Amino acid sequence: MTTKQKLKEAAMRLFGEKGYDGTALSEIAKEVGVKTPAIYAFYENKEDLFMTVFREAMDSYNTYVQELSGEKKKLGAKESLRRVLARQYEFYQRHREESVLVLRYVVFPPVFLKETIEQAFLNSDGLLTSIIEQFILQGMEEGSIPDQSLQPLVDAFLNVMDGLAMQYFYYTSKEVYERKLNHAFDTFWNGVSS
Amino acid sequence: MTTKQKLKEAAMRLFGEKGYDGTALSEIAKEVGVKTPAIYAFYENKEDLFMTVFREAMDSYNTYVQELSGEKKKLGAKESLRRVLARQYEFYQRHREESVLVLRYVVFPPVFLKETIEQAFLNSDGLLTSIIEQFILQGMEEGSIPDQSLQPLVDAFLNVMDGLAMQYFYYTSKEVYERKLNHAFDTFWNGVSS
Amino acid sequence: MTTKQKLKEAAMRLFGEKGYDGTALSEIAKEVGVKTPAIYAFYENKEDLFMTVFREAMDSYNTYVQELSGEKKKLGAKESLRRVLARQYEFYQRHREESVLVLRYVVFPPVFLKETIEQAFLNSDGLLTSIIEQFILQGMEEGSIPDQSLQPLVDAFLNVMDGLAMQYFYYTSKEVYERKLNHAFDTFWNGVSS
Amino acid sequence: MTTKQKLKEAAMRLFGEKGYDGTALSEIAKEVGVKTPAIYAFYENKEDLFMTVFREAMDSYNTYVQELSGEKKKLGAKESLRRVLARQYEFYQRHREESVLVLRYVVFPPVFLKETIEQAFLNSDGLLTSIIEQFILQGMEEGSIPDQSLQPLVDAFLNVMDGLAMQYFYYTSKEVYERKLNHAFDTFWNGVSS
DNA sequence: GATGAATGAGCATTCATTCAT
DNA sequence: CATGAATGAATGCTCATTCAT
């Protein structure tokens, strides 16, 4: 793997773990086995490295989420919605570094990123919203969800997702997390389908 | 107000907004109208100042939550649970700085705080759990919640709370947030009570 | 003498000798017997230190020049003009560091100083011009200088001064310099008075 | 034009404008449209590039001056001397970059150049002196200059030249400069011929 | 309590230079 | 010839911290 790629990965992990200000370029370089100035052969400066890495993580998350919409017809609404949570969980597990980074900086953006990130977040949020809407509409068509206005259900589901996002990062136990995921979803579905 | 108090407040806000590493003692001092070394008259060092401030924020949050349990008998279970969310929201609004700080460092603790914070969090979490349990039991006694095992409902409710916590910090609009809060709770209660 | 003062003097000499870019703050600090960051207790940054020092040198030169005009009546025009050169020479000798600095940066200003310096130079130049004018007028009144238009003589005298300024810095020998000064002035006066 | 030649020209301009320490090799390379290490194919290091360029500028100036001596018989002494100034002026205009460089580093040589430059300067100065001497002697033979010792007149003329050199770099206006040149020379000639 | 002076440690960044390709 | 990758050395600057006053 190229030095540039390795720098990106080290940066991803360290920026995620210790934050932008808490991560020295020298640490990133050291992890890659290179001296600090070598970074400047690939990135303009610390901010550039961070932004590159952050954008990539964000894109990776968005792509992951977007792929859900391709599968809508195969499953019932309930299973589709559960799959959304499962997929989010899968992303956290397979791309832990990206997840941490995205979550961290979406909730606590450094000043110089605030605007860019809000933009990116609204984008991603809108995408997700429309996917959820489709699944819920599907549920109404199927009859598994009674006819009612859409927004409350979408809001509730997004709330479940956000709650699970936070919990993923402070409940380290797989079992506990999966239990919480199931309980949250079951209660949600109960509320939606009755 | 004493310098010490003023330092605590400035530190609270700045540590919350810009993070531990992103906040220089000189900034805190400047906000208070004092030179940096003056801080050392009250706090051993940066870490000490941070810990003091963090602990206080955490305590403030815990106290706020704890006060809920005193009121259990006056209201029905549904209203009591809704009040929990309302109270959390109230805390965010009245003590925005404390909220940001607690949320930020519970989810992303700096290395030197990891252990302390996990302890504190488990504590707070346990407290909250038992309060929620009581309200749900009350609901079962009242008949507003069908008999069933407790944990799923508690997990679901805590998840609603966590979701709302995150959302408070990235949806800045009051109206949007309140809508999301109501929709999340209504769906939860629908799922729980049916 | 205070550290601040000592810093200024070291900066004056080093900036004059080795230029702005050729002088590291660490050198200045070292000469004063202090570590580099101590500089920041007194000056905002390198540019600030330089500007302070430069402005002071410029002021010092201007003051020196200005003092000439107070003495006009005591001497004949010829002696007064010769005294201007003598006084400039005296300034170079007594304030060698200031001289070098002023000359260096008036002729070769760094980009960030161009404007400020041009301003300061025009100021100083105007001052000097009017002093020379007075002495020449005095010469005409006395009859030592034939009536004629002023500007050619002023231009010629200022040119003598500029030439001597340059020569001071590349002819290190006192004797040679003084000879050149006398020859230049004598020829000038010959040209002016005939 | 060859890369080597282009490098020399870029170096000439940049070293003249911003000084040796203020000019990065990368800037020079960028102006030529080449990467920094390419420079090392032609020059041993920065110093070598600088010295090459400086020597060339110095030679160019010397050659220019030397060419004056070939023409001595065609004109009267006065016109010949005026031509020296005109030619110097012409050189400044046609070879502005070279002029700046020569002037800058003759007056303010960097440490590593001091010796070389003093040598070169004395050489050039001697050359110029002997040319001026010839013209003045010619004037005496012609009778346009009264018999007298040579040195004062040579010194005075060189002073005029030096003054004009300095002024060329801080009076940007062509008209002003030409006026100053004429006034300086006329006064000089007046002084010399009477 | 509070401050001015000072510092050690560290950081982002620049730059001249090297070397394999 | 020219470049990409890499580095050692240095630079300006920041920051937490100390200490005498």
TrEMBL record, chains A, B, C, D:
Residues 24-43 bind DNA. Keywords: DNA-binding. SUPFAM superfamilies: Homeodomain-like (SSF46689), Tetracyclin repressor-like, C-terminal domain (SSF48498). The keyword DNA-binding applies. It holds the Pfam family TetR_N. It comes from the Bacteria. Coiled coil: none annotated. Residues 1-61 form the HTH tetR-type domain. Transmembrane segments: none annotated. This is TetR/AcrR family transcriptional regulator. The lineage of its organism: Bacteria, Bacillati, Bacillota, Bacilli, Bacillales.
